[in-house]
Amino acid sequence: MLDWTDRHYRYFARTMSANTLLYTEMVTTGAIIHGSGDYLAYNEEEHPIALQLGGSNPADLAHCAKLAAERGYDEVNINVGCPSDRVQNGRFGACLMAEPELVAESVDAMKQVVDIPVTVKTRIGIDDQDSYEFLTRFIGMVSAKGCTDFTIHARKAWLQGLSPKENREIPPLDYDRVYQLKRDFPQLNIGINGGITSLEQAKIHLQHVDGVMVGREAYQNPYILAQVDQQLFNSNAPVLSREDVIEKMVPYIEKHLQQGGRLNHITRHMIGLFQGLPGSRSWRRFLSENAHKQGAGIEVVRGAIDLMNANKPAVDPELER
Ligand SMILES: Cc1cc2nc3c(=O)[nH]c(=O)nc-3n(C[C@H](O)[C@H](O)[C@H](O)COP(=O)(O)O)c2cc1C
């Protein structure tokens, strides 16, 4: 998720779950090929990790897939679900649902140069092209070129008139359509995405499909990740407390600070760790107000914990809202 799942967030997520597949933010082929930064940088601890690419030129996508494989990514995913204007101007994202031939050609070009899985994230439709036949035609053509893994955001996108945020909220979710897709393409790995906010919900979806992708909840309430391994991957590892998670982050934060990084680059992703608990507001506020300051160090994190513990109200006003 753009601006959210950067490498600091992913490291943080990985402290809680060893098995969850983590995705990068969408990185455009243009940025990788022409940009000056290293858009493929990640921490070794982040594995298993998928690079999500935005693009529609098969040669460029293949080039970037090859770079990703060389850098050790475990998977490369094409974004066919983002409806933003900027992305449409670049002729990629959700508008590519209307061009299954091009997506198929891209998958083909990428698969010719890498051995890691080439996967596609898409929606159930775009604009008035929202019939089940439209979706199955897309999946049929792209899978014919060797893509075996699809994640489906279970709502369509309106390419005009709705903001990306509205396009994550207004078009209704249709999980049954994704379940139907799995029944009609049993040989494919079909993952479902959209509006999933608990592991209980995830388990229900897993009775119908092969995978579950959680977006906003995994960011805004990241502690949901702490029991994924135990509940979904049969792990016997102990479940970490939130405080354990913070302690696991301390060496990473200190290294980042030593290298001249800012504290809030990391802590901004940790703001939701105590989501829903008494005192969470103190944690959030203290970090927001202090972690961006010049020279802010690990003492700010410790200060936020202390303040939270000191300010735990008998009843959290936030929960009463
Ligand atoms: C801030 C933000 C950035 C996002 N960026 C991306 C992105 O780069 N690539 C992508 O495939 N989806 C992106 N999404 C969409 C999510 O991956 C997901 O499909 C959507 O939020 C629905 O799932 P959820 O209800 O679990 O959040 C983004 C969502 C948000 C909130």
UniProtKB/TrEMBL annotation:
Domain of life: Bacteria
Cofactor (UniProt): FMN
Reaction equation(s) it catalyzes: 5,6-dihydrouridine(20a) in tRNA + NAD(+) = uridine(20a) in tRNA + NADH + H(+); 5,6-dihydrouridine(20) in tRNA + NAD(+) = uridine(20) in tRNA + NADH + H(+); 5,6-dihydrouridine(20) in tRNA + NADP(+) = uridine(20) in tRNA + NADPH + H(+); 5,6-dihydrouridine(20a) in tRNA + NADP(+) = uridine(20a) in tRNA + NADPH + H(+)
Residues binding FMN: Q52, K121, H153, N193, G194, G195, G215, R216
Keywords: Flavoprotein, FMN, NADP, Nucleotide-binding, Oxidoreductase, RNA-binding, tRNA processing, tRNA-binding
Function: Catalyzes the synthesis of 5,6-dihydrouridine (D), a modified base found in the D-loop of most tRNAs, via the reduction of the C5-C6 double bond in target uridines. Specifically modifies U20 and U20a in tRNAs.
Protein name: tRNA-dihydrouridine(20/20a) synthase
Annotated source species: Shewanella gaetbuli
Gene field: dusA
